[in-house]
């Protein structure tokens, strides 16, 4: 199925087509990795809105990537509950292992490393989302193993 | 010794209630049949009699909210039930667990509510990051596909958010569901009159929905006897931070915060002294370690000028610097401000900057006053509570730990890196990743 077909199928669930902008952006991102100008145009054409409108919506939400990303995305929650039990040390371990800084891609393209606001797993801190899947109780000593996994995956 | 009282999460410890068959084996979906046999108005009356108040944070009477929805002959537009599963309040993770462990009880509550407000269209707005919860709810709905008698004439669409705290505010959520940037609307009109697609809309929280079937199972009057006056029933409370056993604990309202921390969550690790507790998610006014004998209910917390909010209890031990806490909380709201109202958009940034100067020992006494002045200039001057809660929370850290703030004026932070919140990288402060770093094929 083409992306446009998939988008229109999802749009049919809603009384108004525009409601499908968020799911459509997600589908485009899943297909292309990030939302390039071309990807935004594909979404716009499928939903009969402008590419600029799609970009204005995409830029509002943290989960849309408007720039190229690594093969994996690692998001470390550094909100209060995670920070209280050592999220910053977990983040620094990822920075060292991936040879990058929070907010950037690793030079080898393995992963994009980000901090993220409260992931809603505060009692199981530190929470790290790896490609969207939560890892609970992550400690700095777990980080080399996770990065190894990502390099091989 | 306070104990858990599981109603919303009831049975989930012994059964896999994500499976339709197991949920039905413990009496699941029988309350739906019972409610559907009643007139919608009678369902609303029953929920009014239970004294259930919304579990999202505003604590509004659920039955009353439903009663505001016009009858179909008063407003011919379709009626919508929108479920707010956009849980993003720092410290709260109860809805996450409810969706993952009792998805069918949650869906049964949605279907009963849809009957009460005469809606055939349910939208569940799930926080984008809650991938596991989303997949479990979708799988549960898939099981219902084979059971038209349970689904009735109701369609349920699960809509995923994409990372924006503000979408937990009901009008921002509706904007987002309409495919827009999630910026709050001015009220009135309230969603009950003009909500999704300008039609009558009820917006309810996940836990509220999952509480509806047990209310019918116990009987509304019996449910109303649980808890304390004005705060009937149970709450699923999220405990995190410096406790031995972080997690969600469902309790009858009226247990004290001390009991929550020491009886249920095992106390503060390492024999350290308790310093402060955020009682209802980072939007709420902080309590000192001396104020925790308060009963965990609406009225008792209101007397201390704070709130249960979304029941996220964050516990902090003696090592934590309250200026660093202010920075991290302020940074969160700065990042999440939608930008629509100037006092919130600019004010949260100012707050962060002043707090950073304080932490570095570069602020004067005048700037500490300026911080409180900025907080005051945000309060009550915006469309939604986001900026206001940031301002109220940070001002409460200054009010209750004033000596500590004043100590920072003279030479900076007395805690430094002994405090676990020292130099924590927040999303608002992180670098933007460089597009040149990796090549990804375009198009």
Total beta strands of chain A: 5
Secondary structure class of chain B reads: alpha/beta
Main beta sheet strand tally, sense and closure of chain B: 5 strands, mixed
Shape of chain A: elongated
Low-confidence stretches of chain A: none
Q: Which strands sit side by side, in order, in the main sheet of chain A? A: 2-3-1-4-5
CA distance, first residue to last residue of chain B: 61 Å
Describe this structure in words.
The complex is a heterodimer of chains A (about 150) and B (about 450). Helix content of chain A is about 45%, strand content about 15%. Chain A is built from seven helices and five strands. A five-stranded mixed beta sheet of chain A has the order 2-3-1-4-5, with helices on one face. Chain A is elongated and about 50 Å long. Chain B is α/β, with parallel strands linked by helices. In chain B, the strands form three sheets. Chain B has a five-stranded mixed beta sheet, with helices on one face. At the A-B interface, helix 2, helix 5, helix 6, strand 2 and strand 3 of A face strand 3, strand 7, strand 11 and helix 14 of B.
Task: Give me a quick take on this structure.
Chain A is built from seven helices and five strands; from the N terminus they run H-H-H-H-E-H-H-E-E-E-E-H.
Main attributes of the structure:
heterodimer; A: 153 residues; alpha+beta; 7 helices; 44% helix; B: 443 residues; alpha/beta; four-stranded parallel β-sheet; 18 helices; disordered C terminus
Write the layout of secondary structure elements.
The complex is a heterodimer of chains A (153) and B (443).
Chain A: H1 3-11, H2 21-32, H3 37-47, H4 51-58, E1 72-77, H5 80-84, H6 87-98, E2 104-105, E3 111-116, E4 128-130, E5 133-135, H7 143-152
Parallel strand pairs in A: 1-3
Antiparallel strand pairs in A: 1-4, 2-3, 4-5
Helix pairs in contact in A: 1-2, 1-3, 2-3, 3-4
Chain B: H1 20-25, H2 30-36, H3 40-50, H4 62-67, E1 80-85, H5 94-101, H6 103-116, E2 121-126, H7 131-145, H8 148-151, E3 155-160, H9 170-177, E4 201-205, H10 206-218, H11 220-225, E5 227-228, E6 231-232, E7 234-241, E8 247-252, H12 257-264, E9 274-278, E10 287-288, H13 298-303, E11 312-317, H14 322-336, H15 342-359, H16 365-378, H17 386-400, H18 402-409
Parallel strand pairs in B: 1-2, 1-4, 2-3, 7-11
Antiparallel strand pairs in B: 5-6, 7-8, 9-10, 9-11
């Amino acid at each position: 199925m083409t992306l446009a077909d998939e988008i229109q199928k999802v749009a049919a669930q809603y009384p108004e087509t525009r409601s499908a902008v968020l799911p459509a952006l997600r589908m485009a991102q899943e297909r292309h990795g990030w939302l390039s100008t071309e990807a935004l145009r594909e979404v716009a054409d499928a939903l009969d809105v402008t590419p600029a409108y799609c970009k204005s919506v995409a830029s509002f939400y943290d989960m849309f990537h408007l720039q190229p990303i690594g093969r994996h995305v690692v998001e470390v929650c550094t909100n209060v509950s995670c920070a209280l039990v050592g999220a910053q040390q977990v983040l620094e371990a990822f920075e060292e292992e991936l040879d990058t800084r929070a907010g950037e891609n690793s030079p080898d393209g393995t992963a994009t490393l980000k901090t993220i606001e409260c992931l809603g797993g505060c009692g199981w801190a530190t929470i790290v989302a790896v490609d969207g899947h939560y890892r609970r109780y992550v400690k700095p000593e777990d980080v080399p193993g996770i990065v190894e996994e990502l390099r091989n995956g | 010794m306070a104990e858990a009282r599981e109603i919303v999460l009831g049975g989930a410890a012994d059964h896999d209630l994500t499976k339709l068959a197991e949920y039905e084996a413990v009496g699941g979906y029988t309350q739906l049949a019972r409610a559907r046999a009643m007139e919608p108005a009678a369902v609303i009356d029953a929920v009014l009699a239970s004294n259930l108040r919304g579990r999202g944070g505003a604590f509004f009477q659920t039955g009353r909210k439903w009663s505001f929805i016009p009858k179909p002959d008063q407003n011919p537009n379709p009626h919508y039930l929108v479920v707010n599963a956009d849980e993003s309040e720092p410290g709260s993770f109860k809805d996450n667990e409810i969706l993952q462990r009792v998805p069918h009880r949650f869906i049964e509550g949605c279907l009963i509510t849809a009957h009460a407000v005469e809606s055939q269209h349910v939208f569940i707005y799930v926080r984008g990051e809650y991938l596991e919860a989303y997949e479990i709810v979708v799988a549960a709905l898939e099981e219902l596909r084979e059971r038209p008698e349970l689904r009735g004439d109701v369609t349920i669409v699960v809509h995923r958010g994409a990372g924006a705290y503000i979408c937990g505010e009901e009008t921002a959520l509706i904007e987002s569901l309409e495919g827009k940037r999630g910026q709050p609307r001015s009220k009135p009109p309230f969603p009950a009159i003009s909500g999704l697609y300008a039609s009558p809309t009820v917006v309810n929280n996940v836990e509220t929905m999952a509480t509806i079937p047990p209310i019918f199972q116990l009987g509304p009057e019996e449910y109303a006897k649980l808890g304390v006056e004005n705060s009937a029933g149970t709450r699923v409370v999220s405990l995190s931070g410096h406790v031995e056993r972080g997690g969600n604990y469902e309790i009858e309202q009226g247990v004290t915060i001390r009991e929550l921390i020491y009886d249920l969550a095992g106390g503060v690790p390492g024999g350290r002294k308790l310093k402060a507790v955020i009682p209802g998610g980072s939007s709420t006014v902080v309590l000192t370690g001396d104020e925790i004998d308060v009963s965990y209910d609406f009225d008792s917390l209101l007397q201390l000028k704070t709130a249960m909010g979304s029941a996220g209890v964050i516990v902090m031990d003696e090592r934590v610097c309250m200026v660093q806490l202010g920075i991290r909380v302020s940074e969160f709201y700065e990042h999440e401000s939608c930008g629509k109202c100037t006092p919130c958009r600019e004010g949260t940034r100012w707050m962060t900057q002043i707090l950073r100067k304080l932490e570095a020992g570069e602020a004067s006494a005048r700037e500490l006053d300026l911080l409180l002045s900025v907080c005051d200039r945000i309060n009550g001057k915006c469309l939604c509570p986001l900026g206001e809660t940031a301002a109220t929370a940070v001002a409460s850290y200054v009010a209750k730990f004033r000596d500590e703030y004043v100590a920072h004026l003279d030479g900076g932070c007395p805690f430094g890196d002994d405090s676990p919140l020292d130099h924590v990288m927040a999303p608002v402060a992180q670098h933007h990743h460089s597009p040149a770093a990796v090549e990804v094929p375009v198009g």
